[in-house]
Amino acid sequence: MIHRAQEVRQRAHAPYSGYKVGAALLGASGKIYAACNVENASYGLSVCAERNAFYKAISEGERDFHAIAVVTENGAPPCGACLQVMAEFVPDFAKFTIILVDAQGNRKEYTLKDLLPYGFTPRLL
What we know:
The protein is α+β, with helices and mostly antiparallel strands. The chain has a single domain, classed as Cytidine Deaminase, domain 2 (3-Layer(aba) Sandwich), CATH 3.40.140.10. The chain is 26% helix and 22% strand. Strands 2-1-3-4-5 form a 5-stranded mixed beta sheet. Helix 3 links the parallel strand 3 and strand 4 (97-101). The termini are far apart.
């Protein structure tokens, strides 16, 4: 997963921020869905790598997920919007692993519960 995220990060379209992100999402089927961030001159239309990976997986029929690897220059965690998308599709926050990797290959692992302890979920509606 990490290797796939590192590879796809190189294809990121980030001409405005220069902040390239690659993500690789592991589905329950064993398939890995890799995606990068895509910026737009109209900044609000930009989409993060993590959300692109989830949307790609969903569009291909995957509905259950185990983990995501996210590669950035500095190993930063996903933004709030990406965490919220994860919350939509991950029923058990404690069982979903988020692997953060920096450009040097250093990694840290968290669960979605660690990064979003009080997430807003469909169950609250």
